[in-house]
Design a protein that fits this description.
The chain is α/β, with parallel strands linked by helices and about 500 residues long. It contains 22 helices and eleven strands. Helix 8 links the parallel strand 8 and strand 9. It has a six-stranded parallel beta sheet with strand order 6-11-10-7-8-9, sandwiched between helices. The protein has a three-stranded antiparallel beta sheet with strand order 2-3-4, with helices on one face. The protein has a two-stranded antiparallel ribbon with strand order 1-5. It folds into three domains: about 120 residues, no CATH class; about 240 residues, Rossmann fold (3-Layer(aba) Sandwich), CATH 3.40.50; about 80 residues, no CATH class. It is globular. It is about 40% helix and about 10% strand.
């Protein structure tokens, strides 16, 4: 069932094409529609939508407004009429436009948050407005994500970052400077296991597999790595660990600063990219597939023409340096109103927590920036969808070739290498629900994209969706909190993102 309102309403009020402003009833008791919030972007007031709007307004989730309009909105209480708020004067045009667009509504027409009984699920994928509050649907029942995929408006970054088989083979034939043609950041999960087999056996490249043994790596992944070593004797493996005391403090710091305890995969680049540089490896690849980029490619707003990047895309070398600089930045911004700020905060926080690990990587970046003639490993991704077809095809291959095994009691094929993946799901969901970030919970959007792009069936995805760590604290959460010496009292008393990631706000919207 769709989201309901307090009273009957016109379902087209949100996400429609602007119409000329008409007269506003003087009796309207204005409030912001659910999931809209008045925020500040630096010194400027901004209305922010914590959700995804219907096409063509999917990119219109941050709306600058004047200080005068912001002051009026701060006075909204759902009881006073628009006439009282405007002191009997004519309603300003900016405010009338917000009313026409359905951003400002009468208090009786404010949407109720979805519940398990009233949630709406996309007719094509498995997105719903319970896990993704603020998700809109068109008249067909198609969610706003699928509307973006349907329009087919991918960005240009993927083409810069994607490596073809032919390019890899050409580079390998010309590679006389290194013992290796490619480094794979290996986790023992489905995607990186397929990538490892594909590069080493299908393309017969010289592969260096680099594994960061994070304390919360699934035991099944450790076994998968052991079996891969036996099945792929032509591959050289290298493993690094980081002291538990450092990891523990870093995870606590991450949770308090950015609301999630995760450190992957950023730390792997700090550990292994300098090694790839010193070994003169031409390429560094990770097991990231298309659906993990679908939201960035199809959904996120592209730069405005005035702020757009040059027409010529960055060179692969420049793109790699941009990639590394994002993961080694020191800035930590305010509350993230944009995905880019969320990512910058995440990476900067890890660097602050584990700064001693970054010395070699920073030295490589500085050298490459000072001398354009210095060759650096290019960070790329392989078009794995074209290589293996769908997820079940990939699983059959790695089972047959590497004796790869799923984690026990897990059916979903997303994120098979991490034992605390459901904690990430839960904390991302809670922060999004509590309107602490505009960053959509990742697993549900990736799973839904996999349905749209034909990597898995909708029925299978619905079963996998119910396994994700949303809506209720996952069982592993209590063990993780105990490992990190975080008590319920610590959470309740905290005034940082730890509380927002684990406790529901009374009225987040």
């Amino acid at each position: 069932m769709p989201v309901t309102y307090e009273e009957s309403h016109d379902a087209t009020t949100c996400g429609t094409i602007p119409r000329p402003c008409s007269a506003v009833p003087a009796t309207i008791r204005p409030v912001l529609q659910t999931r809209w919030r008045l925020e500040r972007d630096g010194d400027a007031p901004m209305l922010v939508y914590y959700g995804l709007r219907n096409d063509p307004r999917h990119a219109e989730c941050l709306i600058p407004i004047s200080e005068a309009t912001a002051e009026t909105i701060r006075g909204f209480d759902g009881r006073r009429s628009i006439a009282d708020l405007c002191s009997g004067s004519e309603v300003p045009e900016e405010l009338r436009s917000l009313i026409e667009e359905g951003i400002v509504v009468d208090a009786a027409r404010r949407k109720r948050p979805a519940t398990a009984e009233t949630k709406q699920t996309c007719v094509t994928c498995v997105n719903d407005d319970l896990i993704l509050p603020g998700l809109e649907f068109d008249d067909r029942g198609l969610c706003a994500f699928c509307q973006c995929y349907e329009k087919g408006r991918p960005g240009a970054q993927s083409s810069v970052n994607t490596l073809t088989d032919a390019e890899l083979l050409d580079a390998a034939r010309a590679n006389t400077a290194s013992r290796f043609d490619v480094m794979v950041l290996y986790t023992g999960g489905k995607d990186s296991s397929f990538l490892l087999w594909y590069l080493a056996r299908k393309l017969q490249l010289r592969v260096l597999a680099a594994f960061w043994c994070m304390p919360y790596t699934n035991p099944s992944s450790l076994e998968n790595i052991r079996r891969a070593k036996a099945r792929l004797p032509e591959v050289e493996f290298i493993e690094r660990t980081v002291a538990w005391n450092a990891i523990k403090q870093a995870m606590i710091g991450q949770w308090r600063t950015v609301g999630v305890p995760c450190l992957c995969p950023t730390v792997a680049f700090a550990l292994f990219y300098p090694l790839a540089f010193h070994e003169k490896v031409p390429f560094v690849l990770s097991g990231m597939e298309d659906v993990q980029l679908a939201v960035m490619d199809y959904v996120l707003p592209k730069p405005s023409p005035a702020a757009a990047a040059p027409r010529t895309p960055p060179s692969p070398r420049a793109h790699t340096l941009q990639f590394l600089e994002l993961r080694t930045g020191d800035c930590h911004g305010a509350k993230p109103l944009r995905w880019a700020q969320e990512l910058a905060n995440y990476h900067a926080s890890i660097k602050r927590q584990l700064n001693p690990l970054y010395g070699d990587l920073m030295a490589v970046i500085d050298l490459a920036k000072k001398d354009p003639a210095v060759s650096i490993p290019l960070i790329k991704r392989l078009d794995t969808t074209a290589a293996y077809g769908n997820w079940q095809d990939a699983v059959q291959i790695v089972r047959r070739e590497l004796d790869w095994q799923m984690p026990p009691d897990q059916e979903g094929l997303l994120h098979t290498s991490c034992a605390i993946e459901h904690v990430k799901d839960y904390t991302q969901y809670m922060r999004f629900r509590n309107m602490r970030t505009t960053f959509f919970p990742q697993s549900i959007t990736e799973l839904s994209a996999s349905v749209y792009f034909g990597l898995t069936s909708r029925d299978e995805a619905l079963r996998q969706r119910d396994e994700l760590g949303y809506l209720r604290p996952p069982a592993i959460l209590a063990d993780l909190l105990k490992d990190l010496d975080i008590t319920d009292t610590d959470v309740d008393a905290s005034e940082d993102e730890l509380r927002h990631a684990l406790r529901a706000s009374s009225d987040p919207s």
